[in-house]
Amino acid sequence: MKKLDHIAEHLKDSESHFLREENVLFPYLEKHGVTEPPAIMWMEHDQIRGIKQNLIRLIDTHESMGFRNFARQLEEAALSLAEMLSSHFYKENNILFPIALQVMEESEWKDIRRQFDELGYCCFTPEPARAAVEVAKMPTSKPEIAGMVAFEAGALSREEIEAIFNTLPVDVTFVDKEDTVRYFSQSKDRLFTRAKAVIGRKVQQCHPQKSVHLVNQILDDFKSGRKDVAEFWINFRGRLVYIRYFAVRNQNRDYLGCLEVTQDITDIRKIEGERRLA
Hints:
Blueprint: H1 2-13, H2 15-31, H3 36-60, H4 67-103, H5 106-119, H6 130-137, E1 148-151, E2 154-157, H7 158-167, E3 171-176, E4 181-184, H8 209-224, E5 229-236, E6 239-249, E7 255-264
Antiparallel strand pairs: 1-2, 3-4, 3-7, 5-6, 6-7
Helix pairs in contact: 1-3, 2-3, 2-5, 3-4, 5-6
């Protein structure tokens, strides 16, 4: 059972292999018009996931069944997984990867490798060549698109950015590093009243005097780096409201400000079971 537990852990870790393909390799292939092989491979990923989950479930619950029954089901699941993986890896090595090598440019592979490194690997991280490490450290150039704001992971128009913030199922307010209120979202079901007059106001002036010392404590903890999150929950008009404050930092961990996120979690707490897309 100890060996089986070890195998189960490796099966869980192996999910990163599929995630790298689905989230990085497949999108690059689709940009070159290669759509059918990724679609077939993704379908097989889900089939393999189902077999792995069954195998892991058997190992985790073996004490609740007789040994003969456990051994029989384990053998069936293991053989099924071995057969499926063998077929799948053959398709990867003889169809998927050769097509990828044929259609993609060297510069794309450098971006793919960098994103693979970000997602991580199964059980180990490959030792990269020195040149590959240097390339991974280099910032990826982002194409300029007229009227768009470029981000590390895409680009959006000003209209899209505002609509996205207002569509979020949470209310957000941003206070900059000088404790000045700079922005708040305007969702249709906002929990707490916000007026545009608060923009440019010190956040301490937006709270009753009895709470100012707590506000200052949170901000001081964020600025000093002692904390990154502060959270509270209250009953408000018969609803349970979850209020969180997050320290906003850049890649160098410099403090940029504080993000307040407010959410009505009354109905979320009632959720049970699953409702899946498929």
